[in-house]
Amino acid sequence: MSADCPLTSNAGTAPFADPPAEALVATVVEYDDEPDECTIYPLHADEDERVTSWISAKRGSYVQLDEMR
């Protein structure tokens, strides 16, 4: 199962109302036999950008921002 969610500053109030050009989308894929995986990519990416402009992380590999500052 997967879920897509735009990552915009107003996502809590209007997630699909005219997102900015630099908006990102997070897709979470849930697995039964391995950690879930979140992939973040540009919302308005063309076909070529979609295969090169993304980052993925598995559940358990995330850290709090405060820990890395």
What sort of overall outline do the alpha carbons produce when their principal axes are compared?
Answer: extended
* Neighbour order of strands in the largest sheet: 1-2-3-4
The Cα radius of gyration reads 14 Å
Please provide the count of β strands: 4
**Number of helices in the DSSP assignment:** 2
* String of helices and strands: EEEHEH
Mean pLDDT: 77
How much strand content do the residues show? 25-35%
Question: What's the end-to-end separation, in Å?
Answer: 33 Å
Regions with little confidence, pLDDT below 50 for 5+ residues: none
List keywords for this structure.
extended, mainly beta, 69 residues, 2 helices, four-stranded antiparallel β-sheet
Quick synopsis:
This protein is mostly beta strands. It has helices at residues 47-50, 65-68; strands at residues 2-7, 24-29, 37-42, 55-58.
